[in-house]
Amino acid sequence: MGVPCVPVDREAGEESRQRLADADLVAEGYDIVVDEATIYIPITDPAAVPDDLDVVEYDAPVRESQTMPADRLDFEPSYERIGEVIVVDEDDPERARVIADAIVASDLPVRTVLNRASKVKGETRVRDWDVLARPDDEPDRPATEVVHREYGCEFLVDLDAVYFSPRLATERHRVVEQVGADERALDMFAGVGPFVVPFAQRGATAVGVDVNPTAIEYLRENARRNGVADRVTAIEGDVRAVAPDYEDWADRLVMNLPHSADEFLDAAETIAANDCVLHYYDIQHEDDPYGPGERAIRAAFEPDYDVTVETRHTVRSYAPHEHNVVLDVRLAR
């Protein structure tokens, strides 16, 4: 008996699987099948599959049962996977240790288990970690370093030294799909390059700026890993100091620094070309999630630019009654 599957070309297999996984549509109880030039990805809900993907019936085999962490516990633990690093968020050190032991004993591919030990803090937006499990055969490699794969790109990340959120993969991909091959795109708070690298993969000339020197090192490495080093410029520094070097340059600007992006709008106004798309990320109360950002953008750019908000989009819930949102704004001088 067949099960609903999304058929894709082998070259697009990982990107499509990641896209479906981000939407929680991959049916974990069945194996993904490679049949000549086509990959069949079993799915849970055909009605929820994006319109640009097909759904067919295919005889995918039932996956052999795996031992999961919950099988070794008397409860269902909460954890997040970033490549082969698994992150838990437990206030009780003993409970965290019990969960880590169950994760290591399961069939999950795991290199390191981490427990969040602080909130994101400081100018570089990093956090503290408790290392609950790590490999013995890689003493010189940071326990917090991991390879994360996202929509066909590969990112080397040290979670202890840089800010990175895999939960924003779908949002990043939404923006990346808008980029043209002839564009000049600048990410004002670039991190390890999750916007910059795929921009360059689409043929854009991409610049990433970040105050964190370690993030810039990883950005350069990730540009090399993905074969786009010739189209990526990575700059360590405060984007307000960098802005004069890129005056009137950018066709597209990314401002993903919620809580304080408004402090950098003067720099954005300097960098924006005559026709520019701005992706402005903000965190605001649910009563008015978009208004503060839109008012700040208009105050910075009008009357020199015509300001048109093309998209108002809630990325995710951030905290009770607070939302992480984005404004896609067309700026025309």
Automatic annotation (TrEMBL):
One GO biological process term: tRNA N1-guanine methylation
Keyword Acyltransferase found: no
Domain SAM-dependent methyltransferase TRM5/TYW2-type: 79-333
GO molecular function: tRNA methyltransferase activity
UniProt name for this protein: Methyltransferase
Keywords recorded for this protein, A-Z: Cytoplasm, Methyltransferase, S-adenosyl-L-methionine, Transferase, tRNA processing
One Pfam family it belongs to: Trm5_N
PANTHER family found in the cross-reference section: TRNA (GUANINE(37)-N1)-METHYLTRANSFERASE (PTHR23245:SF36), TRNA METHYLTRANSFERASE (PTHR23245)
GO (cellular component) term, any one: cytoplasm
Keyword Nucleotide-binding appears in the UniProt entry: no
Cross-referenced InterPro entries: MeTrfase_TRM5/TYW2, SAM-dependent_MTases_sf, TRM5-TYW2-like_MTfase, TRM5/TYW2-like_N, Trm5a/b_N
